[in-house]
Amino acid sequence: MRDVLLRVEGLSKRFGSGRRAHQALDDVSFDLRQGEILGLVGESGSGKSTIIRCLVGLEKESSGSILYQGINPATASKGELHRYRRDLQMVFQDPYSSLDPRMTVRRIIEEPMLVMGGYSERERRDRIHELIQLVGLRREHLDRYPRDFSGGQRQRIAIVRALVVGPKVLLCDEPVSALDVSVQAQVLNLLKDMQRQLDLTVLFVSHDLAVVKYLCTRLVVLNRGRLVEKGDVPEIYENPRDSYTKALLEAVPVPDPAAERERRARRLALAVAP
Amino acid sequence: MKSETADAHAAPLADVPAVDDPLRLADAPSEIAAALSAGAIGGAAGRLGRRLFGRRTAVVDRIAFGLVLLLVVVAVVGSFARPYDPFAVQTSSALLPPSSAHLLGTDDVGRDVLSRLLAGAGLTLLSAAAIVVLAAAVGIVVASVAALLPRRVDEIIMRACDIFMSIPSLVLALGLAAALGPSMLSIIVAMVAASWPSTARLTRGILRETMSSSYVESAGILGMSRVRLMLRHVLPNSLDAIYVQASMEISGTIVMISGLAFLGVGAPPPSPDWGSMIAEGQQYITTAWWISLFPGLAISVGAIAFGLVGDAVRSFVDPTARRSS
Q1: What is this model's ipTM?
Q2: A4-239 has which CATH code?
Q3: Quick check: A82 and B18 CB within 8 A?
């Protein structure tokens, strides 16, 4: 078994207080192991994005802890926090709102290096040029604005921005759900390539089980803020133990009309029976 | 030009140490200077200008821009060249109707109405612009500070704005101007005091909205300080809406200035501002209508032109808000 890189333990998040409080996360624990792509699955409102937002500090967890290579961001020193922020980078869901519309692509990509510090002007330029070509864009794209690009291209730019400071962990919050199906495959393949080439560990949030099956090695299933099942992808897909996971898997359409018909009939019978 | 601005942005960031505390106010002045020198504001204004006079501009908008341009030219030329001295009292030629010698007639003490109108144009437009710019500046600063501070403080500041806004602005301006004594400066001070809270309120809403967008969050994740976030991402992306607000307010401000001057709290008597000219002609309205009519028309044209420009600016910023007519 590979080393644990990031450990999430008993993570809970409560929004609001009193009777209107909403428990977004309830005692969620899982490990992210070196070099894996871990899928975080659940329907909308299951708390999967909240986990990522807690990990990068956009939300403050109500209780529980995050431990990344001995660093707990809640109690970390400045230096540790700096390393934590460099090592964990995030790709947002919507590439149309995650890039500053008033900045050129070059400045968008350069910004993380400027904020992190420690890069000379030459290093910055070289890294930008190297990465932009790695994701299949060209140098002349650098002086254009986000509005000049398609959704898929924007998400590539967002991926470059996340990778430019050399993170160890890439947190992806539904990075393809805002894209056309045809473009989704390109971006997924890109993520897979990047993961292999740069030896990244990826936490991949998605509601799309087909995407997760294609990309991930292990899976964590969330339902209403609770972790209901975790395990290896083939295992869970073959033999789901939790009823919620079964329901999720049942909802995935099968690309075979006969099988799909049969499955629908079965599901209908199931729904009528009790 | 483009690469220059990029460098100007990059340079000040590079020598700021990366690790930070959440509110590093000590850096604020250099950050502000950086943001300004980088042309975040100037650049946006330039783009706006190109859009205003671009090929795709609608006819109404062209007319509006033309009128405003005309007003500005008149104001500039009028402050140097006029047919007569706007202050020269000449009782022998009092109350003359419009003629070839006095195009817009003369007033009760024989001063040329056209000359006074021209002399007053600069005064009116300049003070309207000053009021709008100052109110916007105060509003933006207050809104930025409120948006940066914790929710609770933000709420307190906004409630204070609400209290200010609950006083009718004309009454507030009237009271303040009366207390400060009759001068153009006191009108400006009073109007700024009366109008910044609404700007602050609106701007703060826009800033909060921009702050929650994911490109701001993504910079925040890196550990960028909130002040730097504000100057680098939030303010530049909120400016469009602030331009619209400001350009909309110019026309109302022109009317308000003239209203205050009409009520006698403006510049003292010999001053040729349009509002007091209407007031001076008031008692002759049945016999010498030209004394009041022409400054009244000037105010209307100014208000309408700037109002249309405000409308045009809004439709540039948000093309979906294009008026349907």
Answers
A1: 0.85
A2: 3.40.50.300
A3: yes
